[in-house]
C-alpha cells in the first residue's frame, strides 16, 4: 500500500493526492497551494481530513491515503486505500442527489442535506478502491 509521505502533493494530471494512515501521531500541513486554491490536510492512523479554502472537502475514519482526487461541479473521483474499511465523508453541494460508484459498480443514490456532506462506507483491502460520486 502507498502512503503520501509529503502529506499532500500535486500530480502531473492536475489532481491532488494526500493522507498518510501509517502515522501514529497527527500530522498536518497548512497553506498548500494547488491551482489557485489553498489546502489544509490533517492525517494519522485514526483520521484523514482535507479542506480547500477553509471549506470541508474530505474526511475518513480511520485514516486513509487518497490519490488522484479530482473535483468538479458535477463529480468527485479518487482512489482510496487504507489498512481497514473506512467511513468516508465528502463535501458536496447542499440538497443535491448523487450516484455513488465504487469500483465502477453503482452503490445507489444519496441526497445531501443542508451541510452538503455525503457519507459512505468503503471496504478496503490490498489494492486502492476507486470512488466516483456523480451528481444526478
Describe the structure.
- The protein is mostly beta strands.
- The protein has one domain (8-135): Chondroitinase Ac, Chain A, domain 3 (Sandwich).
- The chain is 0% helix and 58% strand.
- The protein is built from no helices and 13 strands.
- The chain has strands at 8-10, 16-18, 27-34, 37-43, 48-52, 55-61, 65-71, 75-81, 86-91, 97-102, 105-111, 117-122, 129-135.
- A 7-stranded antiparallel beta sheet has the order 1-2-7-8-13-10-11, with no helix packed on it. Strands 3-4-5-6-9-12 form a 6-stranded antiparallel beta sheet, with no helix packed on it.
- The chain is globular.
Can you summarize this structure?
This protein has no helices and 13 strands.
What is the secondary structure topology, with strand pairs?
Elements: E1 8-10, E2 16-18, E3 27-34, E4 37-43, E5 48-52, E6 55-61, E7 65-71, E8 75-81, E9 86-91, E10 97-102, E11 105-111, E12 117-122, E13 129-135
Antiparallel strand pairs: 1-2, 2-7, 3-4, 4-5, 5-6, 6-9, 7-8, 8-13, 9-12, 10-11, 10-13
Structural class given helices, strands, pairing? mainly beta
Q: Span between N and C termini?
A: 33 Å
Overall shape: it is globular
Largest sheet: 7 strands, antiparallel
Q: Strand portion, in percent?
A: over 45%
Radius of gyration: 14 Å
List keywords for this structure.
136 residues; mainly beta; Chondroitinase Ac, Chain A, domain 3; seven-stranded antiparallel beta sheet; 0% helix
Amino acid at each position: 500500500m502507498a502512503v503520501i509521505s509529503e502529506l499532500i502533493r500535486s500530480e502531473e494530471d492536475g489532481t491532488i493526492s494526500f493522507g498518510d494512515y501509517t502515522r501514529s501521531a497527527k500530522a498536518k500541513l497548512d497553506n498548500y497551494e494547488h491551482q489557485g486554491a489553498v489546502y489544509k490536510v490533517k492525517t494519522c492512523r485514526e483520521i484523514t481530513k482535507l479542506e480547500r479554502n477553509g471549506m470541508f472537502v474530505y474526511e475518513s475514519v480511520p485514516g486513509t491515503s487518497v490519490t488522484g482526487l479530482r473535483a468538479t461541479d458535477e463529480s468527485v473521483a479518487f482512489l482510496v486505500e487504507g489498512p481497514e474499511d473506512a467511513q468516508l465523508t465528502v463535501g458536496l453541494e447542499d440538497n443535491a442527489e448523487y450516484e455513488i460508484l465504487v469500483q465502477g459498480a453503482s452503490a445507489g443514490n444519496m441526497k445531501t442535506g443542508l451541510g452538503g456532506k455525503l457519507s459512505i462506507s468503503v471496504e478496503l483491502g490490498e489494492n486502492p478502491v476507486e470512488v466516483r460520486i456523480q451528481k444526478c
